[in-house]
Amino acid sequence: MKKIFKISLMLIIAMVLLAAAHASILSPASSSQPGCSTLPASIQSIVAGTEPWYCPINAQIGAVFEKYASLMWIAVLISFAIAGTIYMGGALAGSSRIKNFGIAELYEATATGVIVGIFLYVCAVVFGILPGITVGPINPYATALHYITQVISQAQSLYASLFFIYFKIQYYFSYSLTVGGTVSVLEGIAKILASIGGGENIALAIGKFAISFLYLDPSMALMNIISDGIMLLWAEYYLIVFFAVAAIPVFLIPGVVFRAIIPTRALGGMLMAIAITFYLIVPTMFAVAFYFTAPNALHQMNTAATLLNKFGAGQGSITNALTPASPLVVQLKNAQNAMAGFWLMLLFYPVLIIAVAYAAITQLAAFLGGVAKVGGRMRSFI
Question: Rounded to two decimals, what is the model's pTM?
Answer without folding.
Answer: 0.70
